[in-house]
Design a protein that fits this description.
alpha/beta, six-stranded mixed beta sheet, 8 helices, globular
């Protein structure tokens, strides 16, 4: 059951632009992107390759800096932060899983999940409690003492999600988190993520997978110009969805030939 939350802005992106290059050789990766994500919303970021989805997530996660515009996370303007404070903010306020996110092979699931807390020098009793709690929420308590090679692909992804949750309790960023997983495990991962959003966490996920639409509450459809942002229902009734769906069907059909 969807839990009702007061509309509390967790992420505010205002007129964001990202430009690479100079002197006549300029690539505009982001062009005037604006949207707001409230507590408990699950935002799916869709769009063709090269539309700026990963660039946007890199800017929101503070891994990359925007050329202009504003990004406020939990009311704090990260585009104005000094580097030292930004590093601390990233470590303590943001949880994310990117395409190249990996568990450390030499650490157990328990140690991997605890990593952001260990780096932040959290006391051991609090670390133990938080790891146990998040593992229980994601149904991976039984693998806490296993190494990554002893876990299934779905268990590894849940462990990554648990690590992200230990770093942040209000906003989780995901960039193609189900790449390489089979459809059943993918659906399970989406459902677990949706459950987290229903607990009040804001989830922002980049995906090419149209299956993600079944779980999102809002959609940001990225384009070089005139990006769309709205509820899933508004998106499903828009021309952008029809064009994107047709393009994805053609792409998948071409890949199978």
């Amino acid at each position: 059951m969807q839990t009702t939350h007061m509309a509390t802005p967790v992420l505010e992106v205002v007129h964001l632009e990202k430009v690479y290059g100079a002197l006549g050789n300029v690539t505009r990766a982001l062009n005037d992107v604006s949207f707001t994500v409230n507590r408990g919303e699950f935002v799916g970021i869709m769009g063709a390759s090269g539309s700026g989805k990963s660039t946007l997530l890199n800017c929101v996660s503070t891994i990359d800096s925007a050329t202009s515009g504003t990004i406020r996370i939990n009311g704090q303007d990260v585009t104005r932060m000094k580097q030292a404070k930004l590093s601390q903010f990233r470590r303590e306020e943001l949880g994310f899983i990117f395409q190249d996110s990996n568990l450390l092979d030499t650490l157990t699931a328990r140690e991997n999940i605890a990593l952001p807390l260990t780096i932040a020098r959290t006391n051991s009793a609090e670390i133990s409690t938080r790891v146990q709690d998040v593992a229980a929420r994601l149904s991976i308590s039984q693998v806490l003492d296993k190494y990554p090679y002893q876990m299934s692909g779905g268990q590894q992804q849940r462990t990554l999600l648990a690590r992200a949750l230990c770093a942040a309790s209000k906003v989780i960023l995901l960039d193609e988190p189900v790449t390489g997983l089979d459809p059943k495990v993918t659906a399970e991962f989406y459902q677990v993520t949706k459950d987290l959003s229903e607990e009040g966490i804001a989830v922002i996920m980049v995906s090419h997978d149209v299956q993600a639409l079944d779980y999102a509450t809002h959609i940001l459809h990225m384009q070089k110009k005139n990006s769309f942002y709205g509820t899933k229902e508004e998106y499903m009734n828009s021309d952008k969805w029809k064009l994107f769906k047709n393009a994805e069907e053609n792409r998948i059909g071409g890949d199978k030939k």
